[in-house]
Amino acid sequence: MTAGRGLGLLSAAILLLGGCASFGGGSESAGGTETSAAAPIARDPLAARHRQQAEALERDGQLRRAAEEWKIVLTITPDDARARESLRALQARIGQLVAERIDEGRKALARGVQAEARRKFLTALALDPGNRVAFDALQSSTREVEFITHTVRAGDTLSGLALRYYGDRSRSEVIWETNQLPPNPRLAPGTTLKIPEIPGVPFVHPEARKPAPAVAAVPTPDVPRPAPATPTPSAPTASTPKEEFAPEVNPLLAEAREAIERSDYGDALGTIDKYMASKPGDREGLALKKQALYGQAKSQLENRQYPESIQSLTQLTRLQPDYEDAPALLKQARTRNIEEHYTQGVRFYREEKLKEAIAEWRLVLEMDPNHANARRNIDQAERLLRGLEQRMKKSTTTTQ
């Protein structure tokens, strides 16, 4: 009977927030500083903070995060009509922006600007990750833009690089936009830039797109004429590329490539590790390992396997800190992992599982010690828990 009454009090204290007044009445005689501190702990203050965050994020243009905050508000206070209407309006706004980005992406495709089209479709997916139209357009209508990496040297300029790689100074804007540089940037020696392939515009620099076969084909007829006594260039030059492009194909590397192609990244990494055990530091093996780790991390992120994705991306950034967009993906995975634990804590709080809620919020603080909401929520939940325990003890003493 005593335990049953205690649980009833716990349930009543959390669910019937208006009942906190009776809490205060009983606490004064018990010296209830703790209880009076617990009395204001209702869902309202918790929801109010998330409401403020949602409004601030929306003003800042972070619409998807704002929508998540509104959902948290509704998780805490399901009958909040204002929050429900705000979420509905925000989702409509997101839908409109997604439609605009998809339309802009299609127009970019019509102009043949693949990079811009991909960017528009990716922006649409950033706003609405489940949007099938943007996803299908990205998969079927656009292709991966190939890049080469250029290490900036003293005296390099964007227009100079455009002339070097594209043969056209006016293409400097492509390099500027691809690397998201500030206006009129000063290129610091030692930094790296991505030089994207432009569909229909071949690279002119010999290092860029391996024009070696074309270059070799031009001098080949000229060499034998002045020097017929030298080894016939046509035969050696024909055999040299074969040796260059067909070194021994290690079966382990071939197996790893096949595993990557079928998205079996775990198998690929296991095979690469076997290969690297006998050839530590091998460049080809390292390149494949980075490719497999990147693919695995993206797959894990899409499947909401945030801790696993963080582990893969951490390993990747140790190998190469600036690999593709790995730093941004790592930040995204960490943010989503924190959000997931925080939201789970809110659910536990709503379900009256205060200890479980506190445990989730403590995990949040382990990942982000500066997470103010998690810290405040823990303080509130602990005060409420102490107040409830005091109340239960007092009730038990009274019944005895």
Question: Could you describe the 3D structure shown?
Answer:
The chain is mostly helical and 400 residues long. It is built from 20 helices and two strands. It has a two-stranded antiparallel ribbon with strand order 1-2.
User: What is the total tally of β strands?
Assistant: 2
What fraction strand?
under 5%
Fraction in helix: over 70%
Counted by DSSP, the helix tally is 20
Please state the CA-atom Rg, rounded to the nearest Å.
31 Å
Low-pLDDT parts are 1-43, 209-229, 232-247
User: Can you write the helix and strand succession as a string?
Assistant: HHHHHHHHEHHEHHHHHHHHHH
**Sequence of strands across the biggest β-sheet:** 1-2
Query: What about the largest sheet?
Result: 2 strands, antiparallel
Summing up helix and strand content along with how strands pair, one would put the structural category as mainly alpha
Q: Estimate the global geometry from the Cα principal axes.
A: globular
Distance between the termini: 11 Å
Mean pLDDT, all residues: 75
